[in-house]
Amino acid sequence: MWIAPLSWAELRAVDRWSHGLWCLAAFGLPLGTAPAVLFSGLAVLVSAWSWVSAKTHSPDLWQDWWQAWRASPSSLRALVWGCLILFVWLSLSAWWSIAPTSDLQESWSRYRRLLYVPFALWGLWLGLRAGGSGRDWLFWFALGASLSAVVSWLAYWGWTGAWFGSGAGQAGAWVWAGQKIVSFPAASNPAFGHSHIATGAFLVIAANAWLMLTRVSWPGLAAAAFTATPVLLMQGRTGYVLLLVSTVAWFGLGLVCVWRLWRGGRGAKVGTDTGTGAGTGTGPGAVAMRGLAGLLVVLTWLQTSPHLQWRSQQAAAEVQGYVQTQPTTPVTSQGIRLAFWQAGLEMTAASASRLVFGLGVGGYAQGYQALRGQPAPEGSGQPHSEYMALLVQAGLVGLGLWLWIWVSALRLAWSSVNASIPLRQFHRSPHLTRFGLLLMLGLLLLDAGFNSVLWNVEEGHLLVLVWAGLAAWCLAYGRPAPDHAKRGLIQAC
After folding, report:
1. What angle do CA 292, 296, 300 make, to 5 degrees?
2. pLDDT tens track for 219-243
3. DSSP 8-state symbol, 291
4. Fewest beta carbons less than 10 Å away: which of 32, 345, 353, 405?
5. pTM (global) more than 0.85
6. What's the first-to-final CA gap in the chain, in angstroms?
7. CA quadruple 153, 156, 158, 160: dihedral positive or negative?
């Protein structure tokens, strides 16, 4: 073989490199497209090299992997196979695609990130074997998002113009700060790293990650508030919805904790840790009080944010006008989405074959022009909804595979912690982990309804990391670590 055998020490180094590169990809993702593409590409190469080396020259490592894979939950294998089968189906749809060659190639290349999932799973699993933590990738993503929030604050104060060239952001820009939108100056839309839409979603998800990683401690709540607040200073759009949903969810968690304790006869005063591990600061009363504080802050910001008020008024007028008159030239993103979704339903309902198999990868733009007699608004090649995008391009088969992936991920998150812990102690770390993972997946599912998250470069990389990180977490914790790891993987959580 052209690959030389690797010693045990060299394999450990490759394990750490693979794990570290995926963590760097998670860290760089909120900061711009360039670091995400660079580090994820390098991580795929190192993971592939490690996989081939293990297959050919490290039978013990390969046996450990195979045993862990066979012993893994069926939902984990369904998640990985679902990603691969969806990519294969989208590739096969190129045979009947109505898209021009250039649009077909571009659209197909956007879905290649589905192939990253098994490589990321392998690389993160190797890192866990080498002594890494199952939360490393999530911590680095939250840290990168917090750095993005720092620059967003600086852009809001007008301190980034000389550094990042604040102004009207270009559609293909890799990094910008303070994008100018409509009548708002650049400093009034302080999105850093990506467009304000992707940045808003990243900051909210990172804020939830801080709460989960710190078990809703006061420092974690402060980090979450600092990270999420720029969403209300910019044109957050989908970020507004995600922020409100996540805040209500965490507050609801605190109420569930208190209610379960009182119902069980182990009443604790609100704001205390009585009966729940006093001194830890993570009792159900404390969780409820922190959730209430966060909810009040978010509601206050939502009521006073000029961006949200302006955007809400525009959205309400656009939706009302669209329902009444169905204009052919929408103005706001809400009206554009309604036009996209209606056109998508009409395209797929035109024939049974289109409904089942779709128009082929990249076929949305061509189908829209054929249906409406004009190009899609803003020249978009996707309908700003991943569900509609897959339905139009891959039919019910593709949409079914997409939902299969998500059902598998939700089942995997639900089974990722020890279910024997009483529900009245829901505030404790394992149940917080389950709640945080389920909420993160729920926010991404909601985001997919308003944005083509798999089509977009930014959200596409985040999906890969979330799916692979969740799978690696459960794959590794399902059995003890090898003897040479010198620690049980369950201790890494």
Report:
1. 170
2. 888 899 889 888 877 776 788 889 8
3. H
4. 353
5. no
6. 38
7. positive
| Token duo for residue 489 | 């993987």
User: What are the two backbone dihedrals, phi and then psi, of residue 179, each rounded to the nearest 5 degrees?
Assistant: -70, 135
Q: Which residue is it, tokens 């999420």? A: 228
DSSP 192: B
Examine the pLDDT at 169 and tell me if it is beyond 50: no
Query: Is the Cβ–Cβ distance between 136 and 35 less than 8 Å?
Result: no
Helix, strand, coil tally for the chain in percent (to 5): 70, 0, 25
Q: How many contiguous H segments (helices) and E segments (strands) does the chain have? A: 20, 0
- State the Cα–Cα distance between residues 258 and 290, nearest whole angstrom: 13
Q: Is the pLDDT of residue 9 over 70?
A: no
Task: Give pLDDT tens digits for 174-211.
Answer: 444 444 443 333 445 666 666 778 888 999 999 999 98
Residue 396: name the closest of 406, 408, 404, 407 by CA: 404
Token pair 């052209």 in the structure block, residue:
2
Helix (H, G, I), strand (E, B) or coil at 235: coil
Name the nearest CA neighbour of 14 among 57, 65, 49.
49
Q: Per mean pLDDT, which range of 26-35, 85-94, 182-191, 470-479 is the poorest?
A: 182-191
Q: Contact at 8 Å (CB) between 268 and 275? A: yes
The one-letter amino acid code at 109 reads S
Distance CA 10, CA 18 (A): 12
Q: Are 418 and 430 in contact (CB under 8 A)?
A: yes
Contact 111, 361 (CB under 8 A): yes
- Residues, the chain: 493
